[in-house]
Amino acid sequence: MTALEDLQSALADRYQVERELGRGGMATVYLAKDLEHDRQVAIKVMRPQIAEAMGAERFLREIEIAGSLDHPNILALIDSGGNDNLLYYVMPFIEGESLGEKIEREGRLDVDDALQISREVASALTYASSKGVIHRDIKPDNIMLGPDGHALVMDFGIGKALEAGGEKLTQTGMSVGTPAYMSPEQAMGEQNIDGRTDVYSLAAVIYEMLIGEQPFTGPTAQVIIAKRFSGEVPSARTRRDGVPPSVDAAITTALAREPDDRYDTAEQLVVAMTTEGGIAKPSSGAVKRSGCRSTAALMVVVVSALAAALTMSL
């Protein structure tokens, strides 16, 4: 039997699985009909080795927490289930495209459009953070744009479940998160990350919306991560004259290496972008937090940690 036929058989009592919509490194998405509610849904099925690494109990617990989020800019979680061989979750089917697809098609986005998407994503992230939920993998492909153009953040809970299965996941040759958008502390594997890691990732997404490429690029995950510790944060305004100074300054602050030097919430980032002259974040906490960690030492740790990792995205 094919993977589609296996899924159709496993979920026949609840969903009529119709066809595959797309696949990534860690999951495959299917279009299905919710038989109980007579509506179209999208079912995301984790790859078997990813399911095994995460474990059903951890996956379902994190998904349940994410399912409690209720916000107009968060794609709702309808259902989830499975076992160590089959883990899935169900979302509304949205007629639209991902932000990643839009950027790929258009390149640089109109500044006003980019700011509007930023506001909506920031609202979702700030709300989730207030509930104790950190996304951990904000990137254009995890932001859907509906027919009305409004942004919907999806895949809450997956990053936490993946981190829990980190050791097993590493053995599969995969790493948690996406290097182009990953905060330095997440790249370092720090356990006590907070909402400021999502602030960093959102700033990287905003930069890409405005410039057409990520702030840090390179041929490998190791190179991309190392640039966060060895280079200056690139200025969006030097790449595009139409970027307002306040937006440029806010992105630079949000992409700070140390969490204490960033905005505390994604909403603060948006306020700074739309405030003439910008709003700087004091850097008083950086010395206390960073101690004697040197850039060179950080680079050695990061490159060593990623040396064998082949990063694949959801």
Provide keyphrases for this structure.
single chain; 314 residues; alpha+beta; Transferase(Phosphotransferase), domain 1; three-stranded antiparallel sheet; 14% strand; globular
Describe this structure in words.
The protein is 44% helix and 14% strand. The model is unreliable at 283-314 (pLDDT under 50). The protein has 2 domains: 3-92, Phosphorylase Kinase, domain 1, CATH 3.30.200; 97-306, Transferase(Phosphotransferase) domain 1 (Transferase(Phosphotransferase), domain 1, Orthogonal Bundle), CATH 1.10.510.10. It has helices at 3-10, 48-54, 56-67, 99-106, 111-130, 158-164, 166-171, 184-187, 196-211, 221-230, 236-239, 245-254, 266-273, 286-290, 295-306, and strands at 15-23, 27-34, 39-46, 79-83, 86-92, 97-98, 143-145, 151-153. It is globular, with a radius of gyration of 19 Å. A 5-stranded antiparallel beta sheet has the order 1-2-3-5-4, sandwiched between helices. A 3-stranded antiparallel beta sheet has the order 6-7-8. The longest helix has 20 residues, at 111-130. The chain is α+β, with helices and mostly antiparallel strands.
Summed up, what is this model?
Residues 283-314 have low confidence and may be disordered. The protein has 15 helices and eight strands.
What is the topology?
Layout: H1 3-10, E1 15-23, E2 27-34, E3 39-46, H2 48-54, H3 56-67, E4 79-83, E5 86-92, E6 97-98, H4 99-106, H5 111-130, E7 143-145, E8 151-153, H6 158-164, H7 166-171, H8 184-187, H9 196-211, H10 221-230, H11 236-239, H12 245-254, H13 266-273, H14 286-290, H15 295-306
Antiparallel strand pairs: 1-2, 2-3, 3-5, 4-5, 6-7, 7-8
Helix pairs in contact: 3-6, 5-9, 5-13, 9-12, 10-15, 12-13
